Amino acid sequence: MNTRRLVVGISGASGFIYGVRLLQLLRELDIETHLTVSRSALLTMTHETDYKLADVTALAGVTYRCDDMAAAISSGSFRSMGMIVAPCSMKTLAEIASGMSSTLISRAADVTLKERRPLVLLARETPYTLAHLRNMTAVTEMGAIVAPPVPAFYARPASLDQMIDHTLGRVLDLFGLEAGTVKRWRETEIPANAPAPAPQPA
Ligand SMILES: Cc1cc2nc3c(=O)[nH]c(=O)nc-3n(C[C@H](O)[C@H](O)[C@H](O)COP(=O)(O)O)c2cc1C
């Protein structure tokens, strides 16, 4: 069984490029990707990038239509390391929070949660309504990780690409995958022969 397999959903929040770059990084890491793109994401793709759907599906191992409820990723018996929704709209977030699965993205996310596999949502909106915040709380209570694509300025990004890669590198950290795109805070200052840090009180 190929455990190096991840489900990727691209929904219609701003930031289509996060989904594209994520697929590229996972390809470099030799992770088999199973992709589904929502209808609204096709709109953001057109408004925000010069990509065509074929360019994006070419980066994925397998692509499923977002209304294909018979797709492999709609069943928990299809094994994977987990799922990333990048970016995650407030509508898809709400569907996941309520357990309503009207698209393949929300169904695959529901499956990921019920199988107790890692689910990471790059939830994107600003500002938030109370409904957004409550839905983020609900998915967190169910075990998902809400990881909004918020840039880290301590990394001193010199470009949008660096900003995106840092965010995605931190997302891949959550799966134990080293993308090599994270400028890690003060890690390089620690000498190789430094003693192990003393255990901290709980
Ligand atoms: C250019 C554009 C940008 C959008 N940005 C956001 C956003 O940042 N967050 C969000 O929740 N919805 C955003 N939307 C609205 C969603 O696309 C819309 O709610 C849609 O129903 C989401 O469907 P999906 O979750 O199935 O992809 C945007 C729509 C467009 C056309």
Write structural notes for this entry.
It is a single chain. With 202 residues, the chain is an alpha/beta fold. The chain has a single domain, classed as Flavin prenyltransferase-like (Rossmann fold), CATH 3.40.50. It is 37% helix and 14% strand. It has helices spanning 16-28, 39-48, 53-57, 90-98, 104-114, 130-141, 160-173, and strands at residues 5-10, 32-37, 62-64, 83-88, 119-123, 145-146. Helix 4 packs across helix 5 and helix 4 (90-98) packs across helix 6. The mean pLDDT is 95. The structure holds flavin mononucleotide. Flavin mononucleotide binds at residues 11-14, 38, 40-41, 43-44, 47, 89-92, 103, 124-125.
In short:
The chain is of the alpha/beta class and 202 residues long. 37% of the residues lie in helices and 14% in strands.
